[in-house]
Amino acid sequence: MAVTIYGIKNCDTMKKARNWLEDHGVAHEFHDYKALGIDRAHLESWIDQAGLDTVLNRAGTTFRKLPDAERENLTREKAIALMLDQPSMIKRPVLETKGRLLIGFRPEVYADMFKG
């Protein structure tokens, strides 16, 4: 089964998620979107599946430091442009597997996904 986890190397939540996968023997590929970037197709797919409010990290420092004009009246297109320009605005981790998408890390949700 192909498992890809997207995020930023130094994020504490990412470290927890990656450690969980390793501790449970789940082979995975790590895509650091701060180093490697992310493409529009992924962002559009994630937003279609999970919703803009789930994908965009409004609570993060990067988003909060934006000028008010950039944070206000945020359309899907404007949000995608911001995330393409500054991938740290994407919530993390984003995990793709089995045709499913998980955003954020909750051990019980990972356990349910990978049981068996």
UniProtKB/TrEMBL annotation:
Record-linked PROSITE patterns: ARSC
| Domain of life of the source | Bacteria
UniProt-listed Pfam families? ArsC
UniProt lists the family membership as follows:
Belongs to the ArsC family.
The protein's name in its UniProt record = ArsC family reductase
UniProt organism field: Rhizobium hidalgonense
